[in-house]
Amino acid sequence: MGTIEITGLTKNYGDVRVVDALDLSIADGQFVTLLGPSGCGKTTTLRMMAGFISPDEGTITVDGAVLSSPDHVVSPENRGMGMVFQNYALWPHKSVFQNVAYGLRMQRPKLGREDIRDRVATILDTVGLAGYGDRFPGQLSGGQQQRVALARSLVTEPSILLLDEPLSNLDAKLRDKMRDEVQEIQRRTNITFVYVTHDQTEAMSMSDRIAVMRAGVLEQYAPPRQVYFRPASVAVADFMGLINLIPARVESYDRPTATAEVELDFGARLEVPTADGFEPAAGEQVTVAVRPESIAIRSASATNEDPVAEVSRVMMLGHLCYCVLHVGEVELRVQTDNHVDLDRGDRVCLDIDPRRACAFPASTTSEPSQTKELV
Amino acid sequence: MTAVMTDDQTPSPPAERRARRGRGSVSAKLVLGSAAAVLVVLVVYPLFWLVLGSLGGTDTFTFSNYLRVVSDPGLYDALINTLLIAAGSCVISLVAGVPIAWLISRTNIPGKGLLRMLTSVSFMIPGFLSALAYVMLMAPNNGWLNRLVVSVTGAERGPFNIYSLPGITMVTSFGVMAYVVMLTSAALDSVDSGLEQSARILGASRWKILMGITLPLVTPALLASALLVFVQSLALFGSHAILGLPVQIYTLPTRIYSLFAFPPDYGAATALSMMLVLLTVGCLYLQRRMLARRSYITTGGKAGVHETHDLGRLKWPALIGCHAFFALAVYFPVCVLLLTSLMAAQGSGLTLDNFTFDNYVAVLFESSLTQRAATNSLIVAGSAATLGVLLGALIAYINFRVKPRGAKILDYLATIPLGLPGIVLAVGLVLAWIRLPVAVYGTLAILLIAYLTRYIPLGVRSADSALRQIDPSLEEAGRISGGSWLRSMVEITLPLMKGGLVAGWSLIFVQAIGELAVAIMLFTVGTETIAVVIYQRSEEGHFEEVAALSMIVLIATALILGLTRRLTRASVTRF
Questions:
Q1: pLDDT interval class at B260 (50, 70, 90)
Q2: Among A307, B226, B393, B463, which lies 20 to 30 A Cα-Cα from A253?
Q3: Quick check: A34 contacting B, CB < 8 Å?
C-alpha cells in the first residue's frame, strides 16, 4: 500500500509561492516523476512528502491517513517512507553495513542481529554490492555510493520511496546504467516511487506518469507519451524537448475531431489537432507546435513547387543532424538523419506531419527556448 | 507489495507506526529548549545583578556609585594605567606580530613549523605564570638578570624593574601577540594572489606591492586583531596583579579586586565593572565592524598559494629577530621556571649543590593543599570543558540548523561573555549567588558555573565551525530511516563533529587551568585552584615551589594539547 493523495498543497518562502495549490494523486506501485526546471517547486514538494517541511496550506494523505497539514506534520521517522538523496548522504563514519543496517535497527519491535545481518546481505546482493559491507563510503566510487544509498532506503521495505535527483552526480554512461537498474528495482518491488529530476529523458524513460511543474504550478500530469506528443501547453512542450513554434491563423475549427484548419505564417495550410480544451474561433491567431523530428526536408519535386525554406545552419551531432532553416520570418529546427548533404544557403521544401503538430493559444513569446540542450 | 527479501519479518503495520506521532520533535524541543534556558540563566543572571548592583542594589535606585567612582582620583590613575597598558601591548603585538606573520606566510624563512608552535605556546602560557617568571628574572634586587648585570658591571643595582608600567605592558603583550599573528597570517593567506601578480606584471617592485597592495588589503584584519589585543590586555588580571599591586600600580581589574578586600564596597566595584564592560563591548563592536569589511579580500578570485619571497641573506637576521622575540616571550620564562623549580634556594645560583627535585616532591606528595588544588583544577576545568562543549554544540545546532525566531538573541547571548572580563564576571557571580539559600557560593560549583559562562563562546565557536562542515542531508537521511532526532544527534551529528568538539574541549580546558581572575575572587578554603595556590605562594615568596607548580601546569597543558592534536588527526575522514 503506497497511495499518495496531495490536495491544495501550498508553500511560501517570504513573498515567493514555491508550491502553488498542488493537486496530485499517486496510485500504489506507480513510478511518478516530478519534472521541471530549477525552482519549479519539485524538490520542495518532495521534501514536504518526506515530512522535512510543513505545508502552509493543503494536505498530504498516505493510505488514507493525513501525514502533513498546516497544523500537524508527522515526523519523517514515522511516515514509513524511504529517501535517496542527491548527494547520497552516506554517513562517512559508518561502514556500508552500518549505513544499510541503520534503518533496520530503528524498527520496533526490535529485530535480531542475525536477522539484520541477513537482510543487509540480501539487499547488498540485490544492488550488486555483495561483500562490500566492511568498506567505508570514502572508499567507494560514485556509482557504488549510489547503490549503497539505494540499498539503505530499500532495506526497510518502505511503501513509498522518494528519490531526489539521485543520478545527477553520475557521468552519462553510469547514469544510463543506473536508470535501468532503478527502474528494474521498482518493477520488482512494486514500491511507489516518487522521483524528482530536471532531466526530461530520465523522466520519460522511467516513469509511469510525469508531473510537469513550473513556478510551483502543476502544468501536466500524464504518461510520458502524452506529455511529449500532446503537451498541455507551449511551456510543457518546450521543456520536454526541442520544439518549433510557428505562428498561424485559424481558418476553421472542427469540434467533433478537435482539429483546426490553420494557415501557417509562411503560407502552408494544415489540419492540426488542437490542445486539450482549446476551441479557437475562425480568424484567431494561434501557435502551432511541431517537433523537429516531425518535419521532413526534401528538394522540390514538381516544377511549380517553390522551395521556400533556406538552410542557415547544419549541426552534425553524430547520430543525427539538426538543420536550422528560415522560412520567411520563422526559424525552424528540423531533425534529419546524419548523411544528409546540405549547405548554408540551400533552398529546400518542407513537409510537416500534421498529426504530430498541435495548435495552442498564441503566447506572448513564441520564441523556442534557445538554451535547450540538444541531447 | 512483494517484499524484496524473505517474508519472515513483518514490519510494524503502518497504522501503528503512524500512531507514534511527533515524539521525535518533542525530545528535540526539550533538549534544545533547556540548552537555551541554561544559556540565558548563565549569562543574563550575573549581568543582571551587576547592573543592579551598580545602580544601588536591591535597597535603592541611585547613581551615587557611579558618581563616587568618577570623582575618585585613584580611578583616573587606574583608568590611565589600564589604557596605557592596553595601547602599549597593542603596539608591541603589532610591531612583533605583523612581521612574524608575514615571514611565516610569505617568505622562505626556515623553521616555520617551530615559529608557528612558538606562537601557540606564547598564547597558551597563562599570563600570570609569565609574570611570575619575569619577577624571578627582573625583580629589582633579586632578579637574575639584574644580579647578572651587577656582577658583570659592578653597578649598584641592575637596570631592570619589572614592577612598572612598561614591565606590565611587555609581559601582557607576550600573551596576546598570538592573536595578531594568527589573524594576520589568515588574512595574508586569503588575499587573492592575482591581485599581487597583476601588479608584478605591470612592473611594481616587491616592496611596493607589499606596502601598496598587500598590507592595505590586510589592514582590516590587522586592526581587528589589534582591537582584540586591546580588549584582552585591558583585563589580563594576572600580570596586572602580580606586577602592579606590590608597587601600588593599579589598573581597573586590580582596582575592582581591591574593592573586595574587607570591608567590600560592592557599589563601587560594580560601577567600575560596568565601565570596564562598556569599554570592552565598545571595542568588540568596533572589531566586528572591521571584520565585516574584509569581504573584498577574497571576492572574485582564488585565495591560496602565493609566491614565497626569497629572503636571501636577510634570512638569518630575520630568523634571529623572530627568535629574539620568542626568547623574551617563551624561552626566558620557561627556562626560569624550569631552573628555579629545580633549585633548593633561588638565591644560591645555578650550582650543582643547589640542584634538587625536592620542590616537586613537596608540591606533589607532601602538601595536601597543592594536591587538593590540583584535583580541584582538573575537576573544574574538565567539567567546564565537557559541559561547555556540549552546551556549545546544542547552541550552535539551534543557531545553525533550527534557526528559530529568537536565534539572533541566542547568538548574542552566547557572545556576551567575550565582553566580560574575568574579574567582572566574578563580581556579577558573587552578587548573584551569594544571596541564594542554595549553598553554591563557596563550593566548586560556583567556579564551574563561572567557567562555563566564561568559555561558552569558545564552545559555540568550535561547534559552529564543525557543524558547518556537515551536510544537513546526513541528519535527514537518519531521520527518514526511522531514527528519532535525538538518535540522529547521538549517532550521526555529534560523532561527525568530534574533531571540532575535541579541539574546543582542549581549548577550554587549557584556558580554565590557567585562569586566575575568577578563581581568586570566588575561592574559599578548600576550593582553591592551582592558579590560586600559585598566586598565594608567590605572595609569600616561596618561589621554588611556585616554579615547580608552574612547570606542572605547563607540562599538563602541553600534554593535553599534544594528546588532542593526535586524537583529531586520527579521527575518521570527515565529510
A1: confident
A2: A307
A3: no
Instruction: Read off the C-alpha cell for B466.
Output: 564543525
Residue A46 · residue A164 · CB < 8 Å? yes
- Let me know if A160 is exposed, middle or buried by CB neighbors in 10 A (0-12, 13-18, 19+): buried
User: Which of B506, B496, B469 minimizes the C-alpha distance to B389?
Assistant: B506
Q: Which three cell numbers stand for residue B328?
A: 623574551
Cβ A22 vs Cβ A45: under 8 Å: yes
The strand pairing partners of A19, in sequence order, are A11
Tell me which residues of chain B have a C-beta less than 8 Å from any C-beta of chain A. 1-6, 8-9, 11-12, 14-15, 17-18, 20-25, 471, 473-474, 476-485, 487, 491-492, 495-496, 572-575
Architecture of the CATH domain A242-361: Beta Barrel (2.40)
Nearest Cβ partner for A108 among B12, B14, B492: B12
CB contact under 8 Å between A87 and B573, yes or no, is no
In this predicted structure, the answer to whether residue B518 has a pLDDT above a threshold of 80 is: yes
Cβ burial A301-332 (10 Å sphere, 16+ → b, else e): eeeeeeebbebeebeeeeebbbbebebeebbb
State the count of interchain CB pairs (< 8 A) between A and B. 140
Strands (E), chain A: 4-13, 16-26, 31-35, 57-62, 65-68, 81-84, 160-164, 192-197, 209-214, 217-222, 244-254, 259-264, 269-273, 285-290, 295-298, 309-316, 321-327, 330-336, 347-352, 358-361
Number of helical (H) and strand (E) elements in chain B, helices listed first: 29, 0
Is the pTM here over 0.80, yes or no? Answer: no
What is the average per-residue pLDDT within A113-120?
95
Longest dimension (CA), chain B: 101
Question: Which pLDDT tens digit goes with each residue over B50-64?
Answer: 888 888 777 778 888
Please tell me the distance in Å from B261's CA to the nearest CA on chain A.
55
Confirm whether B57-297 and B382-475+504-569 share one CATH topology.
Answer: yes
Q: Is this complex's ipTM strictly greater than 0.85? A: no
> B57-297 in CATH: which number?
1.10.3720.10
A72 vs B: CB within 8 A: yes
Dist. CA B407–CA B399, nearest whole Å: 6
Secondary-structure class of domain B382-475+504-569 per CATH: mainly alpha
**Statement: residue B130 has pLDDT above 80:** yes
Q: Mutation test of the interface with chain A: which of B5, B481, B485, B487, choosing the one with the most A Cβ atoms within 10 A? A: B481
pLDDT in tens, B351-362: 777 788 888 888
Q: Tell me if A265 sits within 8 A of A329, measured CB to CB.
A: yes
Supply the CATH classification number for the domain A1-80+158-232. Answer: 3.40.50.300
Question: Of B126, B74, B39, which is closest to residue B410 (Cα–Cα)?
Answer: B39
> Among all residues of chain B, which has the CA nearest to that of A116?
B9
The domain limits of chain A are 1-80+158-232, 88-157, 242-361
Residue in A with minimal Cα distance to B472: A89
By the 8 A CB rule, do B284 and B417 touch? Answer: no
Nearest to B346 by CA among B139, B556, B554, B125: B139
Band the pLDDT of A100: cuts 50, 70, 90.
Answer: very high
Residue ranges of domains in chain B: 57-297, 382-475+504-569
Taking a contact as any Cβ pair under 8 Å apart, which residues of chain A between 274 and 293 contact chain B? none
Strand-by-strand arrangement of the A192-197 sheet = A81-84, A160-164, A192-197, A31-35, A209-214, A217-222
State yes or no: pLDDT of B24 exceeds 70.
no
Which residues on chain B are in Cβ contact (under 8 Å) with A90?
477
> Residue B544, SS3?
helix
| Residues 150-169 of chain A whose Cβ lies under 8 A from any Cβ of chain B | 152-157, 159, 162
Peptide bond between residue B263 and the one before it cis (omega within 30 degrees of 0) = yes
DSSP string, B46-58: HHHHHHHHHTTTT
Question: Ramachandran region of residue A80, left (φ > 0), alpha (ψ -120 to 50) or beta?
Answer: left
